[in-house]
Amino acid sequence: MGYKKYAYQKTVIMKVFSSFLRKIRSEHCLSQEGLRALLAERSHSFDSLDTISISRWERGINTPSLTKQSEIAEVFGEDLFNIYSSDASFVEESVYSIQLSSSGKSDKAAHPYYNYEQYHTKSMLSDHANFSSMLKLCLMYEGNPRLFPAHQEIASTTSLKPLNLVSAFCSFSQLVGHCLFCKVNTKALFEFMNCSIDIMELLNVAKQDRANVLVVLSSFGVSPQIDNHMMSVYLNQLAMDKTIEYLSFSTCDSKLKQKLMQMKIPMFKVKPIEHQSKTIQNYSFIMSRSEVMANRNMLMLSVIPTINIKPMNSGITES
Question: Could you tell me if 272 and 280 are in contact, meaning their C-beta atoms sit under 8 angstroms apart?
Answer without folding.
Answer: yes
